[in-house]
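hi! just following up on the protien thing from before. the input was this:
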Amino acid sequence: MSTRAKPAPGMPGQDADAHTWTGKARRWLLGKLPPDKLLPEDQPSYVMSWAYVFGMGAVASLVWIIVSGVVLGLNGPQWYHVSSLGGFVNSSHLWSVELFFIFMVVHLWLKFWMAAWRGGRVLTWITGMLSFVVSIVAAFTGYLLQTNFDSQWIAFEAKDALNSVGVGAWFNVTDLGQIFVWHITLLPLAVGAVVVLHVLLVRVHGVVPPLEATEDDAQLRDSSPESGHPAEPGRPVGSAAPRKSAEPKDAAL
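and the predicted 3d structure came back as:
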């Protein structure tokens, strides 16, 4: 039994005294991603640019893809092929996929030209590329589930390609039951996990500043604790006083 003193009810524990794996894990997590970085109230002024919108658009599209996919899976093909409501949800599922890829491609291109791997953000860039690749596979399995002439033709063409690289036994595109499991369980879980990891890494390292960022461009809001100035209601975000660093403090972690 541990002889360490326990904190009083309602009082935070001393993470420096953590002696179990759970305590050490909590200390590590809070060190990497404290609550004020996980859910920040302020962002650098350059985040107000349209260049930073498409990533959030991709995440919003992914959320609707998952929600509509769950509804379609629970009600079955007889519902979404016959009823008007089912047809609407089925169509919104398709169009949310289209939007997801549009937002993601624009997001990736913008981040590529911004060299978004700067400042220790290599893993953030890798997870973004990985989410794009896994999403293509998930969309491909969804296309095969249409079971029309086009999807069956492409399935048999893809079968030869997959067999030639030795993965046809685990990813048999002509086995509709296997493709159904890949599409509604394994691949959505993989996409969701990679996207969540990507977002958490963005929160840890901060959003990447533009290449042309100057001291005046990289200002936090006036309400930032580091600014030393109280927030002024109605004051524009980019009107803060110049700071010495071009990046926010959290981006350097």
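The chain has a mean pLDDT of 81.
Helices lie at 21-32, 35-38, 54-75, 77-82, 84-113, 122-144, 149-164, 176-205.
cheers
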